[in-house]
Amino acid sequence: MPDPNSNANAPTNPGDEAPAGTPGTGEDVCPACSGSGKTGDGQPCPNCGGSGTIVEAIGGG
Ligand SMILES: [Zn+2]
């Protein structure tokens, strides 16, 4: 049974599809801010948490 208090395996940011280091995933430029890490208003991008990159699943086949 999953531990609801454990956040160890949760994606870091809303734009992440998986936690960093998950097999079959990789970092990519955040599509929401194009890698700038900021929104048009100069605020940290909520999709990537301001990092400019997200973790996404790498297409299999
Ligand atoms: Zn972003």
Itemize the secondary structure elements and their pairings.
Elements: E1 25-29, E2 53-57
Antiparallel strand pairs: 1-2
The structure holds zinc ion (ZN).
Organism: Pseudoduganella plicata
Protein name: Molecular chaperone DnaJ
Supply database-style keywords.
flat; two-stranded antiparallel sheet; binds zinc ion; single chain; 61 residues; 2 strands; 16% strand; mainly beta
Q: List the strand order in the largest sheet.
A: 1-2
Q: What is the residue-mean pLDDT, rounded to a whole number?
A: 84
Straight-line distance between termini: 31 Å
How many helical stretches?
Answer: 0
Give the amount of beta strand, in percent. Answer: 15-25%
N-to-C series of helices and strands: EE
What are the distinct ligands in this entry? Answer: zinc ion
Integer-rounded radius of gyration: 13 Å
DSSP strand count? 2
Walk me through the structure.
The structure is a single chain. With 61 residues, the protein is mainly β. The chain has a domain at 25-61. The protein is 0% helix and 16% strand. It is built from no helices and 2 strands. It has a two-stranded antiparallel sheet. It is flat, with a radius of gyration of 13 Å. The mean pLDDT is 84. Bound molecules: zinc ion (ZN). Zinc ion (ZN) binds at residues 30, 32-33, 37, 45, 47-48, 52. This is Molecular chaperone DnaJ. InterPro entries: HSP_DnaJ_Cys-rich_dom_sf. Residues 1-12 have a biased composition (Polar residues). Residues 1-61 are annotated as: Disordered.
